[in-house]
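The pair is quoted verbatim as follows:
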Amino acid sequence: MADFHQNGNIATLHNLRSVSSEAMTQELTNFARTRRISLILPSLYSELEADALNNIVEELAQVPYLHRIIIGLDRANRDQYAYALEYFSRLPQEHVVIWNDSPRQKAIMGRLEAMGLNPAEPGKGKNVWTCMGYLMACQDSAVMAIHDCDIVTYHRDMLARLVYPVTNPNFPYQLSKGYYPRIGGGKLNGRVTRLLVSPLLIALQKVIGSRDYIDYLRSFRYPLSGEFAMRTTVLPDLRIPSDWGLEIGVLSEAWRNLARKSVCQVEISDAYDHKHQELSQEDAAAGLNRMSTDICKAIFRKLAADGTVFTPNVFRTLKATYYRSALDLLESYYNDAAMNGLNIDRHKEEQSIELFADNIIKAGDTFLTFPSETPFIATWSRVHAADPDLMRDMLMAVAADYEDITGGPSKG
């Protein structure tokens, strides 16, 4: 992927293989003396039992420029939280494990619920939002990065390339989004990006006409990547979706809040693979079935907020246009994969397209039936205005959870 193409909408920063990882790490170490960098890792407890996270932690232990690592731990009991503290203790950087299921954290969430500000549902969005609140309460970092904990091809160079654009003081970027080819196991992966988002955006342009927002989303080579970094000044007014629309939601917030010259995408890997979601054709509340619906709703909501009028006829036309566009792209993907010695199961790919087409209608029906539905979690600016002590109390709750297990003060 070592080209130098620019789309003219957002900056694309390529890996032209002309700078060593050691040189980039040294630059980041110098920048970090005045611009501290923190990393957020949203994790399920089950990921501590997998090989991917073990390798990620080993790689992160060799990163000299990180000031703090914040691990948001979901679906863990007390004993599992204690194990997580031991698991991450090999990290030499300041780090903290936020036990999201602890009685103290639940009490914090209860205060938010009493004010009508509690995140709508548990999941990655809520986990990331909580970690962001903790980071802001620390008030000591200039740059925040996030990546998933299930990356089986992880290398610390991914993080270096991800944070470099927003850490370099000579660059104007406030948000950087990682991109990469999704390949693994001899297959071309990334079904939701390839078979839903890309053809859906093409179809939207045909059905509702050209929109700056659609052009903006189409500029991203991998809009659903879970890897992004931003300057912490952006965080207080960032609205985080609680559903599967998280990645699209963050890009939409950047579209709303930032100038185009403040946003970039950066190539962070030659080959990327992580845990794969099942299609879950029989269960609309799980897997790619749920994910595709949530992503469609996120895009429809944003377009409606910018003045697009949707009707049942529009969604029916959009489904038909999407279906044709997706099949056309599938032919290109098939040929691309074949030329590179990779496999694509065309039958399963077409099954995915058929499911996604149906979910465009489902998402449209939900949008029309519940036009005021919003999965967004309240911004931390609003939370702070409603309860100025909550962020401080969150810090104290995390420290108290740590002390209960170890008997000593937190190192985060």
